[in-house]
Amino acid sequence: MAVPDFQTIMYPFLEVIKDGQIYSLDQMVEMLSVHFSLNSDDLRERIPSGKQPLFRNRVGWSRSYLDKAGLIITPSRGHYQITELGKQALNDATLSYINIAFLRRFEAFQQWESTFNSEGSNDLTGSTVIEEIQAETPDVIIGKATENLHKSLKYELLQLLKSKTPDFFERFVVELLAKMGYGGVDASNFEVVGQSNDGGIDGIIYQDHLRIEKIYVQAKKWDSTKVSPKDIRDFIGALNLKGTTKGVFITTSTFTNEALNAANQNPHNKIVLIDSDRLLELAIQFNVGIQTKKIIEIKEIDNDFFED
């Protein structure tokens, strides 16, 4: 048979791991290829770039969408396990097929998909998208796809950061600032100091080898609580106790308008505020917790070459 599309793979994907064990991607590809009775020719078929087998690629996309809905988890890289939510879905006697429309029942998937809805509907399976693709030029299609991948990456990165410990987030922040060039290239110019009695300081950037010039860092790993003006004033107070006016306040949340104003009230203070969106953009730009999956070259005719 022909290689099935990624939505057709999703229900069998859950079925073969319903025992709750952890399976690798190679095991999933093998078990699912047996389920769909794929022959050697089917398994040799590759995606247009030629860099990956088509079936393996579609199994990967199925995994990604099931994960977004919370039906599976990835306990380690390239390994998958069904969740209680996934088991509950399989217990539905009327269910025999899973597609994106079904995944929209789950809050986690709704939250993920909402990241694409800033410019109207984005039904990933409906006729609207097909009509848009047919009406757009390839450059526009590639641009929109790239934008959606970028939004999805930011969403996944934020969820990962929120799932980690405060200590991990503090180390992440210091690593990011190091990649951005603060403190030079010497790793000893950075120090994570966040403790229960840190006085509002989680990290220190030493701007010179004698450690005279310092920038202090506050890292707040919050889910939804916005940073208040009191938090900013407390941070400024902690800076004053250290004898400095330079600080960077970074959060996985956002700042209230009053907090933004509090940071700018004193012109002598140099307080930089970085909210979740800016944090994610910087992490992606400087490849902290991020890796490049592939680079695509788009070529065009060199008209100058052909001119007389």
UniProtKB/TrEMBL annotation:
Give the keywords, sorted: Endonuclease, Hydrolase, Nuclease
User: In its keyword annotation, does this UniProt entry include Oxidoreductase?
Assistant: no
Q: Which domain of life is it from?
A: Bacteria
Pfam families in alphabetical order: Mrr_cat, Mrr_N
SUPFAM superfamilies attached to this UniProt entry:
Restriction endonuclease-like
Bilayer-crossing residues are none
Q: Which residues form the Restriction endonuclease type IV Mrr domain?
A: 163-282
Give all residue intervals belonging to the Restriction system protein Mrr-like N-terminal domain.
Answer: 6-91
A biological-process GO annotation: DNA restriction-modification system
Q: Which GO terms describe its molecular function?
A: DNA binding; restriction endodeoxyribonuclease activity
The protein in question is named: Restriction endonuclease
Native species: Chryseobacterium elymi
